[in-house]
Specification:
The protein is α+β, with helices and mostly antiparallel strands and about 290 residues long. It has three domains: about 150 residues, Maf protein, CATH 3.90.950.10; about 70 residues, Dna Ligase, domain 1, CATH 3.30.1490; about 55 residues, no CATH class. It is about 25% helix and about 25% strand. It has a five-stranded mixed sheet, sandwiched between helices. Strands 6-9-7-8 form a four-stranded antiparallel sheet. Strand 7 and strand 8 form a beta hairpin. Helix 1 packs parallel to helix 5. The longest helix has 18 residues. It starts with 15 loop residues before the first strand and ends in a 27-residue tail after the last strand. Bound molecules: zinc ion (ZN) (2 copies). One zinc ion (ZN) binds next to loops.
Amino acid sequence: MRVSGPVGPALWAGRRAVLATMHGKQAAIAPPLSRVAGLALEVARGLDTDALGTFTGEIPRAGGLREAALAKARLGMRAAGSDLGLASEGAYGPHPSIPFLPAGAEVLVLVDDARGLVLWEEIVDSAPVYAATEAASVETLESFLAGIGFPRQAAVVRPNAGAGPVRKGIAARAALARAVEESAAASADGLARVETDMRAHMNPARMSTIGRLAQRFAERLARACPACGAPGYGRLRAGPARPCAWCGGPTLRPGEDVLGCVACGHEAAPAGHPQPGDPGDCPACNP
Ligand SMILES: [Zn+2]
Ligand SMILES: [Zn+2]
């Protein structure tokens, strides 16, 4: 067993990763990858990542978030003839546990065919800029627009009922007024649907979430497995639930993260006894 493998930038010396994006994500992803992991990034040219699915729903995304990210990374690698590729994917919707609150999930994947490695990092965004409303004219939209931070945050406008063109990337007052008027006129109920544009280059909050995710991913890429030396050592999953301090049964609170390596399967031994959990999180003691 190798105790000390190469660390940090040495793990990626001489390699270049291809990033599959049409939406300027290199602005958030390239700096931490270069600074922390010493990995240079280039953007794949001439890609149509929208063919794999769009936020606005004209093209449904096949499979889950991870499958979509992986397909996108592979698309970029094929286009560039590279054995090292990277892609990110996000999904936004209602919060899983808090009604009426939006939430987002972002994943980053790196595919290294030279090493036979696929590495992941994920982040949950509990305060995304993700909202939608209906309006007959732009005059009734003031508080919605202020809430989303328009025009730095761009809008998508379409008819509220029935088919019609989806107008994306609207980031000017006059263009918004025209789009709302035309979409309302084309809608069976006389209303336009106005949404936050969720593409990274149109959604500054999302771009900054991707930046935070990229920073964590870069730290993972710079960590070598203590057993085999492969890069990407880090969190594999949440550990077993904390035992209830009163009855010892499992609480709803996940324990310490399990760290490990996807290349060789090595996992860090849990550090001592698990911290007891709050009986308030115990389904037996606090039903
Ligand atoms: Zn390993
Ligand atoms: Zn209990």
